[in-house]
Specification:
514 residues, alpha+beta, Nucleotidyltransferase, domain 5, 16 helices, 35% helix, globular
């Protein structure tokens, strides 16, 4: 992600300013009301698929909504043409609701009342060696409206997928958000999975025109034609940074037990929910994917990219794939968990024989990442040179370095586990220090770390958190999320807007619906 030049997002009305006392400001699409004669006939034959009246927030705090006033107007029109097609009572529409819908046509809602993260039960989607279903589904027990879109965030290394599903057996139980990730190299597997989701929607009676894919990340452009051709539905591309911020704001404000701090003494200490203080801005988002982007967020839809680095997850994955036998990121993290970096890194204690307390350095602090590799290699070479009776010239002529073949295995004398841990620390420490410098420069106390690089890995979170505390002298705090890798996908999911409105953000007069 390094190298992107992104300006501050368009100024739009604060999502928080639109919040009702009982509802989240984050909205989704539910099923549109059909007015054609053929659809009314099918509705009479299949009551579950019949159009229903959407209630206002004051009338029904439990049901999800879409296009509140416009939906009721269309339903009333269909009702007048066909006579009574449902036994549901007619509901009146407040003038204020109509006015709000006209001003903010994109405000389709998801009901997050009672939302919680599933910790114990198994995910509803079968596991596969081609993808990973994150077990931390988000249950939405009070969202009963239909959701007919899916979202995908396709990065350089991973593709993250988010979709809504009903609870089995009873629609009144609401549903859940499901989270899956695929390796981008296997994008065809991800597309096949989305094709099955689209097919399920069609089998359940959803009109093809109502189904769409919300896509973000670089792959939303790279694979746009491929996804569109394979699925046969509309693919709407969303700005990557806007999606990240929308997703993060949603998690901070709406989902309990999502945001936490981390330290060795107090691992995973959840922050208060709702946020205290309620104003979460400003903050710094450090999104760690293949590269790293650092984004200053001043308010809803008010952000700017203030820095980044090319040394991110892609650096770790690339080097470890050469230096160890690991072939997946999860394998690399498992190796790192077992490793001892002191066999590879040069520590403060190796130099001073003890801690350097005068400047706050423990004996276990890393003075030089991979510093012992060179020293041990030189020692081994000297031993070999002694074995050649000191004929250094001949030794140099005969010696040939073939990095390609040797790098298929870990360097002699160093365990893959130790190498993995050392490199994980090197990348994490670098990111942590750069994040602190940007936060200090811009006066930001709260630093949120997101991206698939973290992956809930204890050593990574501890390293990042310690770096922020150490460099800031405890004045700044690092925050983590349980769905850290899905910020962009969730943000794109939440940005779905009604198809029948020709332009998104029409009040601001920005870009046309693509």
């Amino acid at each position: 992600m390094e190298g992107l030049s992104l300006s501050t997002g368009p100024a739009v009305p604060s999502l928080q300013s639109q919040r009702s006392p009982h509802h989240s400001p984050f909205h989704l699409t539910s099923k549109r009301l059909h007015t054609s004669r053929q659809r009314r006939k099918r509705a009479r034959l299949q009551p579950r698929l019949a159009p229903t009246t959407t209630m206002s927030p004051a009338q029904d705090p439990a049901a999800g909504e879409t296009g509140i006033a416009a939906s009721r107007i269309r339903h009333a029109h269909a009702h007048s043409l066909s006579g009574t097609i449902t036994t549901r009572p007619r509901r009146t529409t407040a003038q204020s609701d109509i006015h709000e819908t006209i001003l903010h046509p994109g405000n389709v809602k998801i009901n997050v009342q009672g939302a919680f993260i599933v910790d114990e039960e198994q995910p509803g989607t079968p596991q596969s060696e081609d993808y990973e279903h994150d077990p931390k589904d988000i249950r939405l027990p009070n969202h009963t409206a239909v959701v007919s879109h899916i979202a995908v965030d396709i990065g350089g290394s991973l593709a993250k997928l988010v979709y809504f599903s009903r609870e089995h057996g009873d629609d009144s139980l609401g549903g859940r958000l499901n989270f899956l990730k695929f390796e981008t190299d296997r994008i065809d597997t991800c597309i096949d999975f989305m094709r099955n989701l689209v097919s399920d929607h069609r089998d359940n009676g959803t009109e093809p025109s109502d189904i769409c894919v919300m896509a973000t990340g670089g792959g939303a452009y790279k694979y746009y034609d491929k996804i569109t051709e394979a699925l046969g539905v509309e693919v709407i591309r969303e700005d990557e940074m806007e999606s990240l911020i929308t997703g993060l704001d949603f998690f901070i404000n709406e989902i309990p037990n999502e945001v936490f701090t981390y330290s060795e003494d107090q691992p995973m200490e959840f922050v208060a929910h709702p946020p205290d203080p309620p104003n979460i801005y400003p903050y710094l988002l450090v999104n760690i994917g293949s590269g790293v982007s650092m984004v200053k967020v001043s308010g809803p839809q008010k952000f700017e990219r203030i820095g980044g680095t090319s040394l991110g997850g892609g650096t770790l994955w690339g080097l470890l794939s050469m230096l160890t036998g690991a072939r997946s990121f999860d394998d690399m993290l498992r190796l790192a968990e077992k490793g001892d970096n002191s066999t590879v890194d040069l520590l403060v204690g190796d130099i001073y024989g003890q801690a350097y307390n005068k400047i706050g350095l423990k004996s276990t602090h890393i003075a030089s990442s991979f510093g012992k590799v060179y020293k041990k290699k030189r020692a081994a070479e000297r031993d070999a040179e002694d074995g050649c009776n000191g004929d250094f010239k001949r030794r140099g002529e005969e010696e040939h370095v073939d990095g390609g073949s040797e790098l298929e295995h870990s360097p002699s004398g160093f365990a893959p586990e130790d190498i993995s841990r050392s490199l994980l620390y090197a990348v994490s420490n670098n990111i942590g220090q750069i994040a602190y410098l940007h936060a200090e420069k811009h006066g930001l106390e709260r630093i949120y770390f997101g991206g698939s690089f973290i992956g809930g890995h204890a050593q990574t979170m501890n390293t990042l958190s310690y770096a922020i505390r150490f460099w800031s002298k405890e004045s700044k705090q690092a925050y983590f999320l349980r769905h850290e890798g899905y910020l962009g996908a969730v943000g794109a999911f939440l940005k779905r807007q009604p198809r029948n409105w020709g332009r998104r953000e029409s009040v601001q007069g920005t870009r046309p619906l693509v």
